[in-house]
Amino acid sequence: MAGQQEQMPLLPDIPSRRPFDALSMLSVRLGLLLFAALVLSVLARVPLSVFSYHPFFMTLFIVLFTEGIALLQPTSTAIEKQRGLRRHAIVQGAAITAAILGVSAIFYNKVISNKDHFTSAHGQLGLFVILFLISQVVFGLLVGYTTPAAKRYWKYHRITGYTLTIIAWLTAELGVRADYVYNNMAFEGLIWFHWVALILIILGISYRVRLSKWGIRVTQA
């Protein structure tokens, strides 16, 4: 029975609502809003350049990507799952578009500045994230929109999605600690608010995880 549900993830499943689902979503969105505000506050303080488009679009990417995951987490009924999948696809489509624009901006900036590419840990992880993101999108399209037999791999798409989220946020946190961002903050103490944003996002996303969607059945006492 569990295997049948995994092959047909858009059909009704066991109820998965928890008391603080709405509060956890608020936590995620507050964290994303704070993160975006911190990055934009730096961009507002420096002259506009080709490089400026990189942190702008990559911030847009990480916000949309995380929101797209949170949207689909606690769905349980058939209608919720269909609606959640549609929104997930739209938001993640916008996220990958933002990521491509952000990577294009930094690549072009390196070219016109005659600098080497992918020399830092942030840059190397960023390249890995983009390649991972492309494969994740292809994987999701195959699982969600091809044959019914492909639905059995849905849980693996979820697991790799969470893995990508962790690596993407690690890359983002390295980025906001780069000299360009750190040296242009209104005051040094603002860096601590990035930790606040990250904690809010981790708490919200973690609470909304449903292990049953990974094929793990948790026995309740």
TrEMBL record:
Alphabetical list of InterPro entries matching this protein: CYB561D1/2 (IPR045150), Cyt_b561/ferric_Rdtase_TM (IPR006593), SNS_sf (IPR037272)
GO MF assignments: metal ion binding; transmembrane monodehydroascorbate reductase activity
Pfam family, any one: Cytochrom_B561
Recorded GO CC terms: membrane
Domain Cytochrome b561: 19-212
Keyword field: Electron transport, Heme, Iron, Membrane, Metal-binding, Transmembrane, Transmembrane helix, Transport
TM regions (residue ranges): 26-44, 56-77, 89-108, 128-147, 159-178, 190-207
Subcellular localization(s) per the UniProt record: Membrane
Domain of life: Eukaryota
Keyword match Transmembrane helix: yes
Cofactors demanded by this protein: heme b
Membrane topology listed for this record: Multi-pass membrane protein
PANTHER family: CYTOCHROME B561 DOMAIN-CONTAINING PROTEIN (PTHR15422:SF45), OS05G0565100 PROTEIN (PTHR15422)
UniProt protein name: Eukaryotic cytochrome b561-domain-containing protein
Organism: Syncephalastrum racemosum
Lineage, highest ranks first: Eukaryota, Fungi, Fungi incertae sedis, Mucoromycota, Mucoromycotina
